[in-house]
Amino acid sequence: MKIKRLPFGGNFLAITLGELILTTDKMDDYELNHELIHVAQQRELLYLPFFVWYVTEWLVLTLKYRDWMKAYYNIRFEREAYRHQHDLSYLSHRRHYHYA
Ligand SMILES: [Zn+2]
Questions:
Q1: What distance in angstroms lies between residue 34's CA and the mean position of ligand 1's atoms?
Q2: I need a surface site. Which of 19, 23, 72, 93 has the fewest CB within 10 A?
Q3: How remote is the CA of residue 37 from the centroid of ligand 1, in Å?
Q4: In contact, 70 and 52? CB cutoff 8 Å
Q5: Pairing state of beta strands 2-5 and 20-23?
Q6: Cα–Cα distance between 77 and 51 in angstroms, integer?
Q7: H helices present in the chain, as ranges
Q8: Quick check: 2 and 16 in contact, CB under 8 A?
Q9: Residue 35 CA, ligand 1 centroid: distance in Å
């Protein structure tokens, strides 16, 4: 697992691509935990299916809510990550496929 800073400013943004976390800024413990939850989710789904599922769910929810940010927060992977990011021991006791 590797963390790489990207050299552009603006809003905080982080994205996890398999074992690589790309971020526009320093992450605090909770933001890092959020991304590490995505690493665990992606490992479980063997990476590529995660992205297919993620994007499909985002599109379907965007049509449902007609609001892409609301849709984003309701993607099952984001719900799990946002719900548990403040529990820094979460990954040590997380059940597999907990978003399902
Ligand atoms: Zn997320």
A1: 6
A2: 93
A3: 8
A4: no
A5: parallel
A6: 10
A7: 29-44, 48-65, 68-74, 76-84, 90-93
A8: no
A9: 6
- How far, in Å, are 36, 38, 51, 53, 59 from residue 45 at the CA level? 14, 11, 9, 10, 19
In terms of Cα–Cα distance, which of 7, 5, 99, 4 is closest to 53?
99
d(Cα 63, Cα 57) in Å, to the nearest integer?
10
Asked whether the beta carbons of 58 and 65 are under 8 A apart, the reply is no
User: Model-level pTM?
Assistant: 0.91
**Residues 50-97: tens digit of each pLDDT:** 999 999 999 999 999 999 999 999 999 999 999 999 999 999 999 998
Cβ pair 83, 24 in contact under 8 A: no
From the CA of 50, how far away is ligand 1's center (Å)? 12
